[in-house]
Every structure is written in C-alpha cells, then in structure tokens.
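Pilot study result, target chain (68 residues):
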Amino acid sequence: MKRCRTTRPAKQKKAARSVTTGRQVLIAQACLVGGLALALLVKELPGMMREVRIYRMTGGLRANRRYP
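Predicted structure:
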C-alpha cells in the first residue's frame, strides 16, 4: 500500500500585519490601569483634602478623650 504525500500549497506572501507580543499587552494594561487610578485620585482629591482638614480640626490622634 502506497502512502500518498500531501502536496503543500505554494508559499504565499505574508501580508504585512503587526504582531502584538504578550509583553506589549501587559504594558498596555498597566498603562490603562495606572491612568484610571490617576484619574480617580484627581477626582477624589478635593474630598480627601476636606477629610484631612476635618481630621486636623478634631485633634487627630491626640483627641481620644474628647471625641469618643
């Protein structure tokens, strides 16, 4: 019994396409998460400053006896 070899198709020219590596994907994801974290920090900054001001007005850690 003869084995038939399969004929390979003629080599086709590869179309120019960009190859994205895993490292590039991870860097893009890190940039995206960092940008979102920075945007959240900038958005919440006025509220955090207000909370720090209130904390300082009430005496901070030294005010244990005055404010239960």
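One observation from the pilot: The CA atoms of residues 10 and 44 lie 61 Å apart. A full batch analysis is planned for the follow-on phase.
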